[in-house]
Amino acid sequence: MMLPTHAVVGLALAAPLLVLAPDLSTAALTGALLGSVFPDLDLYAGHRRTLHYPVIYTALAVPAAVAAFVIASPLVVGIAAFLVGAAVHCRMDRYGGGLELRPWEGTSEKAVYDHVRGRWRRPKRWIEYDGSPGDLLLLASLGVPLLFVLEGPFRLVVVVCLAVGTIYVVLRRRLAAIAPTVFAYVPDRLARYVPERYRP
Question: What is the reported pTM?
Answer without folding.
Answer: 0.91
